[in-house]
Design brief:
43% of the residues lie in helices and 22% in strands. The chain has 2 domains: 8-127, Rossmann fold (3-Layer(aba) Sandwich); 141-199, Arc Repressor Mutant, subunit A, CATH 1.10.10. The protein has helices at residues 28-41, 52-62, 79-88, 103-111, 146-156, 161-168, 172-186, 191-201; strands at 3-7, 10-14, 19-24, 43-49, 67-71, 73-74, 77-78, 94-98, 116-119, 122-123, 126-127. It is built from 8 helices and 11 strands. The strands form 4 sheets. It has a 5-stranded parallel sheet, with helices on both faces. Strands 1-2 form a two-stranded antiparallel ribbon.
């Protein structure tokens, strides 16, 4: 595939054959950057989607493409589940984007058949603050993402991983991955303690 080299902050691509692609990324700014980079790499056409539902509709309209770049943190469902659907529909080359390098997410993506896993450092709300800048901490209760807070709120209600997945339209593996990140940020893997820490911090009620 096309190789990309960074020199003095400028992207230089060594062209190979042109290809078609689809970018499924929630945040518009990040999606725009992905589309721009795909064009630099040689994409003749890039379809865009911001959610699982939109991606399904676009996939049906355009048919299998040479490459699909999928954000694992989509607002209406699991990027991994979408990836599996597209591969079954004939999309043979998929790359996963993730805000972090959580090992559960990496293993799940590889098991789903991705050709690459890219850590973006971005969430659904956009790029994370750079070190030394003002913004939410990435550890402790303040570091929890909106999705992680949703998961933790359901844990506080006594829901099982399967129930949480059904409520949020996530796979059990994705729920487990969220809980692993929550545990790392809160410093405990015990569900009751995680809830207690979040309640004391006012993150959930």
């Amino acid at each position: 595939m096309t190789a990309l080299v960074e020199r003095s902050g400028t992207a230089h691509a060594f062209r190979t054959a042109r290809f078609t692609a689809m970018a499924v990324v929630a945040h518009p700014g990040v999606r725009e950057a992905v589309v721009r980079r795909l064009h630099v790499l040689g994409a003749a056409e890039v379809a865009e989607a911001a959610s699982v539902a939109e991606a399904r509709a676009r996939a049906m309209a355009v048919g299998p493409r040479d490459l699909c770049v999928i954000d694992l943190a989509l607002p209406d469902g699991s990027g991994l589940a979408l990836l599996g659907e597209l591969r079954q529909a004939g999309w043979s080359r998929c790359v996963a984007l993730s805000p972090g390098d959580d090992p559960y997410s990496v293993r799940a993506a590889v098991a789903a058949g991705v050709k690459g896993f890219v850590v973006t450092g971005s969430t659904q709300d956009g790029p994370r603050p750079a070190p030394g800048t003002r913004g939410r901490s990435t550890s402790g209760p303040d570091g929890l993402s909106a999705r992680e807070i949703e998961v933790l709120s359901l844990v506080a209600q006594g829901r099982s991983n399967r129930d949480i997945g059904g409520e949020l339209n996530l796979s059990a593996l994705t729920v487990k991955s969220h809980l692993a990140r929550i545990a790392r940020k809160l410093g405990t893997g015990d569900r009751a303690e995680m809830v207690a820490v979040a309640l004391r911090a006012g993150v959930i009620s």
